[in-house]
């Protein structure tokens, strides 16, 4: 490494430090609450129950194709409501938390704090992998593997966010998603709904449980 390359590396490190100092007050205010881990824990437990129920139905009727159409519509409808509801709650919650720090801040302000800094070079590759993982799984003839692939890619984004805000729950959630996603690759198609619950429901439970424990110790509300 010559002098110019070393200087460039030092500039990038300094920019990363400035980004951390600039973004941490807003991001830490947004994530420092008991409400969000509580919602995560509830969603995780509910998701595990739904996945377990779906797997029981498949075992009872012999295959997913044999499950009555009414059960299928109900199951996917509940999954859709959970996904949409979670997105809406996240948008509203993050917006309100950001406004406590800055009256003009909103959800987009939070996104800019994350993606408008040098950390984007760690988060963006993970998000790109999350886009291509489903495509690769479907084209390979193993569409269920997209669930594990998404978790593996999401783990890196989660760990990056954990380093940004210095919150243990994000780091442990990322590691759980990574390890459970990798482990499930060998067995996923034998019980897809069960493994979906283990990976994603389990990740939310880890996030919620660790987050609640941390906020209880720190006195956050």
Describe the structure.
The protein is mainly alpha-helical and 221 residues long. It has one domain. Helices cover 83% and strands 0% of the residues. The protein has 8 helices and no strands. The protein has helices spanning 3-31, 35-61, 69-101, 107-115, 120-139, 145-165, 168-184, 192-218. Helix 2 (35-61) runs antiparallel to helix 8 (192-218), helix 3 packs across helix 4 (107-115) and helix 6 runs antiparallel to helix 7. The termini are far apart. 31% of the residues are buried.
| Amino- and carboxy-terminal Cα gap | 49 Å
Strand coverage percent: under 5%
Q: How many helices?
A: 8
Average of pLDDT: 81
Shape, per Cα inertia axes: globular
Number of domains: 1
Q: Considering DSSP H and I runs of 4 or more, what fraction of the residues is helical?
A: over 70%
Structural topology:
Layout: H1 3-31, H2 35-61, H3 69-101, H4 107-115, H5 120-139, H6 145-165, H7 168-184, H8 192-218
Helix pairs in contact: 1-3, 2-3, 2-8, 3-4, 5-6, 6-7, 7-8
